[in-house]
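SAMPLE LOG
Freezer: B-3
Tube label: C17
Construct: single chain, 157 aa
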Amino acid sequence: MQIQITAAPDPALIAAATRRRLRTPVLAARCAGWALLLVTALIQFATGELQPGPLAVGALLALALPMILLNRTARRSMRGGRVTTYEISDGGVARSDDVGRHAWAWRAFRSVEALSGQLLFGLRGGRWVRVPTTGLSAAEVEQVLGAAITQGLRVRR
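STRUCTURE (predicted):
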């Protein structure tokens, strides 16, 4: 198998991948923030005093931190803005642009997630490689997912 894709960064795909990969930390921040806001409301109800510190920290955790996390990560992914060539073969996945080339063997990946218009290859340590599937047929995407399964990766469709 040898599949090659050349694509420019797509902000919508990058945003979708970022939201997917940061789902757990964003949810944790939102839950902690809303819990702190609830505690602040209960304190105010019980004592009649407004506690501005916990109120501000709760709002920061519930509202600002998730936006900052998502925007910062998406901007970092868009930083280069270079046309990139992706190669998927029996040996693994490679990504190259006019600055450099990076290649990963299949055993470097833990999982593959199929999102609309892209595949997310999960590396150890929470990193990931995003590969757009623009220009690929459904059969070619299934071929890539089949190769990932053959290599022992967890596949989410």
